[in-house]
Every structure is written in C-alpha cells, then in structure tokens.
Amino acid sequence: MLKRILIALIIFLLFGCNESDKRLDINSKKIVAKVNNIPIYLGDVYRRIEATYGEIDKEKIPQNRWNMIYEMALESEIIDKLLFLEAQKEDLLVTEDAIKDKINKIKESIGEENYKKMLKDRKSTEKDFEQFVKERELIELYKNKLFEDIKIDEETIKNYYLGHKKNFVDTERVKLEIITTDSIEKANEIFARLQKGEDFEKLSKEFQINSSEKIHWRLRPMPYSSVPEDISAHLKNKEKGEILPPLSSGGKVYIIKIIEKFPSRQLSLDDVKEEIRQLLISNRQQSIIDEWYQKKMKEYNIEYINN
Fold first, then answer.
1. Start and end residues for every CATH 1.10.4030.10 domain found in the chain
2. Is residue 232 very low, low, confident or very high in pLDDT (cuts 50, 70, 90)?
3. How far, in Å, CA of 154 to CA of 66, rounded?
4. Closest to 273 measured CA to CA, from 118, 160, 141
5. From CA 144, how far away is CA 281, in angstroms rounded?
6. Is the dihedral of CA 232, 234, 237, 243 positive or negative?
7. How much is the CA Rg of the chain, to the nearest whole Å?
8. Over pLDDT 70: what percentage of the chain?
9. Better-predicted residue by pLDDT, 237 or 148
10. What class, spelled out in words, does domain 169-265 have in CATH?
C-alpha cells in the first residue's frame, strides 16, 4: 500500500495534472527560495499545490486563501529539500535497480504512452526523472529513520477511542434502487406497472433515456444527508421494500425502492482500531517532522526570494 501511495505521489509531484489554459505554470524556473544556496523553483511549488488540490484557477481563489495554500506548499518543498540533504549526510543509498524498478512500476501504472507524454509536458528527460525518483526514495528512507521508534500500544488506542467516541458513529444510512425518467408520464407508467407486481429490476433495464445512459443505477448505503433534501424527506417514514410514488428533483423524475435501512450506531473499538492507530501514527509523524524542522532551520541557510 505504501509503495503504491509513493508511486502516485511521484507522478503527481513530477508531472502535475493535465494541460489547461487556466493551470498554474508547473514548469516555471523562477527561484522562490534557496536552502544552502540550492534553489526551489516556483514550478515545484505549483506542482505540489496541484498534487494536493487538483488543477485550480488561482484567480478564483481569495487572496488570503491563496497565500495560505502557497506558503504551505513552499514550506513542504523546503522540508523535502532538508530531508534530502540530511539523507545525503547520512549516506543513505538507493540502488540503481531500485530506481529502475520504481520507474517500471510507474510505467505499468500509467502506461508507456502516458509516461512519455508526461515527460514531454514536463520538459523532462529520462535522466531528470531518475534523479527525481532517487530523491523521493532517499527522502522516504530518511523519514523512515525519523519515524522508526514510533509505537502505538493498545492502551493508547483504547484511551483515544474512549475520549473521542462521538467521532466514531456510523450515521443513519439507506440503500436505494432507483429508476430515473425524464417525464412524469413515463414515471407514472412505470409506477403503475410496479403496483401490478412487475419486477423492479426488469423495468429498470427496460426504461432508459438512450443507449448509452441507463436510467437506473444501484447505490451503496449512504447517509440521508447525501440524498437530495426534497427526496430524503420522503424516505424517513418508509420501510424496507417499499416503492415510493414518482418524485421530482433537479429536472428528473425518480421511482425509488428502499432496499435496506441502516440505523445510526456507535462503532466499536474493534471497528475503528486500525483507523485510530493510523491517525495516531500520522499525528506522531507530524509532530516529529515539526520538531525536526524547527531544529534544522537553525542549521541550514534558508532564503526566501520575493521577486
């Protein structure tokens, strides 16, 4: 799992998202900071922003919000640069075979043609990419050293659960089967046939808006808050198996069958133990990085460049 996450992170940080007139200039070589005179480019900061928020239009974001996003991304770039430099100090090594293996996995993940296209869009060579992968791997190796003593025992997990039980509640949910139509007349016809005992699934396959768009779909259990308000109000008093008369919402007409109802329930410790463990590990990791960063800021020359 962690290896797959790292591969995805590498793809995002190196290449960003698809081309767009509104996208940030992820190839910008404007220097915005230096760590021991090693430059950090505006394009790298923008690429990190896109990796976090997706492709965004800077002009549509309030200035104070944009400033916060930018400063966080720049700080992350500085931290990664420091981690990389410390990894080099520690003489941590990544073998050529490991780099090639990582690159092959990325190619398998996105396809050879997409890989070549992304290199071209990024104006990057194969050698640049290998260096980038090497840096990411060294950063991860060094972070693993920082985090190697993290231990979360069962008692800590239990105490966190007991102190935050209200955060671990499975909200009331409903599972629906839906036929969507574009007219009340058609919906009434379908509902009448259902009332006569025809099969819901059969009718859902029969009625469709066009050959490429089925007007029926099955939904996973979802909270009532995820259902449009003008529909959810009609679900509360109904029982499992009931079929509601046609309901209009958003220009469409729906016939809805209630497949199952799931009451709100308190999740047990066993239900959420691993979720809590990962949360506490993540919190510890962040604390370690924060403390480490404050220390390293005094050891390295970090220069911010406004131009």
1. 2-152+276-304
2. confident
3. 41
4. 160
5. 12
6. negative
7. 26
8. 89
9. 148
10. alpha beta
Q: Which amino acid is at 133?
A: V
Dihedrals φ, ψ of 254, to 5°?
-120, 140
**DSSP-assigned beta bridge partners for residue 34:** 39, 303
Q: Which two tokens stand for residue 275?
A: 């979720």
Which position has the token pair 């296209």?
A: 117
* Closest C-alpha among 199, 208, 181 to residue 243: 199
Question: Of 28-42, 122-136, 184-198, 227-241, where does the model show the most confidence?
Answer: 28-42
Q: What are phi and psi of 218, to 5 degrees?
A: -100, 135
How far is residue 267's CA from residue 99's CA, in Å, rounded to a whole number?
Answer: 42
Q: Domain 2-152+276-304 belongs to what architecture?
A: Orthogonal Bundle (1.10)
Minimal CA–CA distance to 244: which of 177, 171, 292? 177
**Sole residue written with tokens 């966190």:** 160
Half-sphere exposure of 251 (CA within 13 A, CB side): 0
CATH 3.10.50.40 domain locations along the chain = 169-265
- The yes-or-no verdict on residue 62 having pLDDT over 80 is yes
Question: For the chain, how many residues are written?
Answer: 307
First to last CA, the chain: 41
Both structure tokens of 32: 């915005």
Global pTM value: 0.69
Cα 42 to Cα 117: distance, rounded to the nearest angstrom: 22
For residue 194 the two structure tokens come to: 């259902």
Structure tokens at 157: 């997990």
pLDDT in the model for residue 25: 87
Work out the pLDDT band at 4, boundaries 50, 70, 90: very low
Structure tokens at 149: 């003593």
